[in-house]
Amino acid sequence: MLRARVALNPAAVVAPVSRRTFGSFVEHMGRCVYTGIYEPGHPLADEDGFRTDVLALARELGVTMVRYPGGNFVSGYRWEDGVGPREQRPRRRDLAWRSIETNEVGIDEFAKWAEKAEVEIMYAVNLGTRGVQEALDVHEYVNHPEGTALSEQRRANGAEKPYGIKLWCLGNELDGPWQTGHKTPEEYGLLAAGTARALRQAEPDLELVACGSSSSSMPTFGTWESTVLEHAYDLVDYVSCHAYYEEHDGDLGSFLASAVDMDFFVDSIVATADAVGARLKSTKKINLSFDEWNVWYLSRFQNAPLPEEWKVAPPVIEDQYNVADAVVVGNLLISLLRHSDRVTAACQAQLVNVIAPIMTEPGGPAWKQTIFHPFAKTAALAKGDVLRVHIDTPTYETAKYGAAPLVDAVATHDASTGDVTLFAVNRDVANPVEFSVDLSAFGAGLTVAEAWTLADDDVYAKNSKDAPERVVLRPIGEVPGGSVALDGSTATLTLPNVSWSAIRFTRA
Ligand code: AHR
C-alpha cells in the first residue's frame, strides 16, 4: 500500500479563506449568456428572462463573484450597445468568437442577474479597441450616483442606485497575439497605468486588476508582468493569471499533476511582482487574481476552425467533463487555497455551457457536469483560515513535470466552529493511497462530520442530460477503495486512485 502523511496545526495559518476564491466567469461567448443564464422563452424563465434553474445551480455551486462580460469578447465590446431600449440596441459582429452579438443582455441586465445570484460583479473594460475614455464612461454609468449624463442615463434605464462595482479588470489577455488590440508589455503597461489613474480620479478605492500572462507557456511569461508593473505598480492592486489544462495524448499522469503548473505560475508571478516592488522600494504587495482557470480541451478547439457563418450564440467549446477532469479541478482549487496569502480572487472559466460546470439545453433541463462537485463542496466547506501543510508523500514520474507528489492536499480551520476540513487528491492512476492525518494539535474530541469522494472505476465517465448523476460525490466509505477512520487524534484515510476528497472534522 502507498502511504502519505500530514500533521495539521491551527497555528500554521497561510491566510483567511478569501470568499473571492470561488469566483466564476460569464462571457458573451457561445451559449453562456444566451440560452445559458438568459432564455426568455424558457418555461423556467423569470420575469426578466433569466433561467431560474441556472440561478439555483449557480447558488448551489457557491459562486461568490462573477467576471463579466469577457474574455476575448470584451476586447471588441462597446458597452453602450447593451443599454437602453432593447429594440434599439445594435447587432454587432463579435470578432473573438465569430458570432453575432444581439446586445439583448448588457450591464443593466447582468447586474439584475448578479443580484438574484447573490454574487459580486468583477467588471472587465475594453482596452483592446478602446481606452481611458470608454473605461471612464462605463464607470460613470455603473458607479456614479446621479447628476451626470451617464449616471442619469442609467437611472432613466431603470437603475436608480449605482451598482457599486469595486473590482475592475483593465482589459483581457492583451499579451496574447489572438487578442483584438494585442499589445506589447510596454504599450499595455502605459495604457493600464493611464486607465487606472483615471479610474482612481473618479473613485479612489476601486480594486484594479492589470492583465498578466494568458498561460505560463507564453514566451513573455514573467517579463510581461515585470514591464507592466514597472508602469502600474502603485496604481493597481492585482495582476491576473489565466491557465487552462487538458489531458494530452492519453498522458493521464501529467494531466493529474496540472496543479504543479498552477503552483509554479503563482510562485513565479508572486516573485516577479515582489521583485518589481523591491526595485521600486515599495512596501505595497500586488496580489494575484487567477481570473480564468479550468480544464479546457483547447487543442480540440484550436484544431477546429470557427464556423464560417455568423450566428447568434452558436455552441462554442461545450466540453463534456469526466471524472479525471473533476479531480484536476478539485486539485486546482487546492492550489488556489494554499496560495490564499497572495491569490485573493479567482474565477473558474466559465459558468454555463462554455467549458462550464453547468449545462443547459435550450427549452430543456439544466444539469451538473462532474466539475461542479469539487467546486461546490470546496466553496461550502473551506471556511476560516487556510493552514500551511507539509505532506510527506511518495512521488511519481510525469512526462511534463518530472517527479510530482502523489498526494496533494490543503486544510482549513474555522476557529468559530472548531471545524477542520481537509481537501485531498490521490493522483495515482491505478492504486489507492493510505493518508494518515495527525490532528493532535487541535486537542481531543474531533470527530468525522462528513467525508466525500469523487472517484469512479471509469475515470472517463461523464454526466449528460440523460444521466446527470452518473458522477456525483459519494461518502468516502461507499466508494470502492475508499475509507476514513479516526483513532484518537489520527485520521486514516484511504484515497482511491484518481480521486478528490473533502473530509470535515468537528467537535463532538
Ligand atoms: O474562457 C475562454 C477564453 O479563454 C476567454 O475568452 C479568453 O480570455 C481566454 O483565452
UniProtKB/TrEMBL annotation:
It catalyses: Hydrolysis of terminal non-reducing alpha-L-arabinofuranoside residues in alpha-L-arabinosides. Its EC number is 3.2.1.55. InterPro entries: Alpha-L-AF_C, ASD1_cat, GH, Glyco_hydro_b. Residues 291-499 form the Alpha-L-arabinofuranosidase C-terminal domain. The keyword Hydrolase applies. This is non-reducing end alpha-L-arabinofuranosidase. Belongs to the glycosyl hydrolase 51 family. SUPFAM superfamilies: (Trans)glycosidases (SSF51445), Glycosyl hydrolase domain (SSF51011). The keyword Hydrolase applies. One of its GO terms (molecular function) is alpha-L-arabinofuranosidase activity. It holds the Pfam family ASD1_dom. Homohexamer; trimer of dimers. GO terms for biological process: L-arabinose metabolic process; polysaccharide catabolic process. Keywords: Carbohydrate metabolism, Glycosidase, Hydrolase.
